[in-house]
């Protein structure tokens, strides 16, 4: 996972006394607020199709489809294909369980902090030689 928290968003998050979980998701994973909202809606509606989820979040299907693609890239959602009785198939989406998402948040933030610490430690090395 190659998410890097946005420094601007991180600052906003630190200044907010009580940031919403969706804001934390957006900041740490570098995703849009509507994608965080889609994740939270999916938590409450596991096994949803794009059409069903579009109704829940009140967005058009193409936007929801893009949000789901991003969530899958960030390992926050998974997709399963279900065969229909009359033929054909439909995709159903389920959010990564909250404890797993929290673990991913911690891991991503820890990786980013380690990266920043390395940059701090390297500062000035080129000037000393």
From TrEMBL:
Pfam families: TrmB. CDD domains: HTH_ARSR. Residues 25-91 form the Transcription regulator TrmB N-terminal domain. Gene3D superfamilies: Winged helix-like DNA-binding domain superfamily/Winged helix DNA-binding domain (1.10.10.10). This is Helix-turn-helix domain-containing protein. It comes from Halomarina ordinaria. The lineage of its organism: Archaea, Methanobacteriati, Methanobacteriota, Stenosarchaea group, Halobacteria.
């Amino acid at each position: 996972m190659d998410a890097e928290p946005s420094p601007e968003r991180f600052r906003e998050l630190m200044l907010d006394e009580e940031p919403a979980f969706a804001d934390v998701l957006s900041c740490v994973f570098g995703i849009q607020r509507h994608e965080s909202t889609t994740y939270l809606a999916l938590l409450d509606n596991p096994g949803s199709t794009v059409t069903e989820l579009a109704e829940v979040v009140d967005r058009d299907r193409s936007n929801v489809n893009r949000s789901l693609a991003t969530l899958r890239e960030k390992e926050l959602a998974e997709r399963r294909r279900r065969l229909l009785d009359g033929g054909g198939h439909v995709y159903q989406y389920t959010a990564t369980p909250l404890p797993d998402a929290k673990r991913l948040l911690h891991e991503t933030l820890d990786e980013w902090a380690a990266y920043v610490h390395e940059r701090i430690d390297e500062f000035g090395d080129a000037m000393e030689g």
